[in-house]
Amino acid sequence: MLEVSLAISSALFYALTYILSRLAAEDISPIQGAFINSATVAAIMLPWSLFTVPVWEFLNPVLLWFVGIGVFIPGLARMLHYAGLQRIGASPAALIRGVGPLFSSSLAVLLLGETLSFELATGTGFIILGVAILSIRKEEMRSWALSGIVLSLAATMTFVFRDIIIRHSSPDVPYKTLAILVMSLTSTVVMGAAWGQFEKRSITSVPRRGIILFVMVGISTVFAQLALFHALDVGRVVVVTPIIASQPLFVMLLSVFLPRGMEKITMFMILGGAIIVLGGTIIGIG
Known about the structure:
mainly alpha
């Protein structure tokens, strides 16, 4: 049950990052937000790692996996997601993101030798179905343009491989804080370079409200990543990833804190949420 509890905690904090990002959307661009988010995580994890991690662990070659993750997440993955969303709309993009557990479970079985029981497969199926139903918003359906599908699928697969890599390398990286530090520092450098290349305004011209909100996103990301790393350390991808994918349920619950009109609760969302809870319960029991 520990892996389930940690996965639920991670999904909750990732949902909080979404809510905070929505609140800051009018003040700051995705590139700026990703930079501030990553820099905040790095600023928190750096002193933590320096005081708690033995010096020789900083030379661990397995950390190169997390350099790779930092190149793609959150910056490139988020940009791919937004690009796909612009082409096909929010609902189709969310539906594609929702099938992530199908890919992650399949790869975990093929590459990591994990087993997928009937209960886990059933629970995963219910969560995917619930996310699909919860994501339906008629006014946000646009098209199924091939370019949008490819971009949204690419964004989804980056998170799938993140979980596979974390689970694969977890035994060789005893200090999860160091892995998160390497990821966040890499992402900060990548997004800082993107900011310099594509953004016209400096950090001093960014509205203070947007900076504060994305610093809060960074703090929430720290908790989400710590829970994710420890969940994948003690548990299996086939259990953890489907539960992480249920974060739209927590987004719906936390949407009461959004300004009126930003996130309208529909019957589809309520039905989808109920099915997600059912799927999570089956996984927890299984």
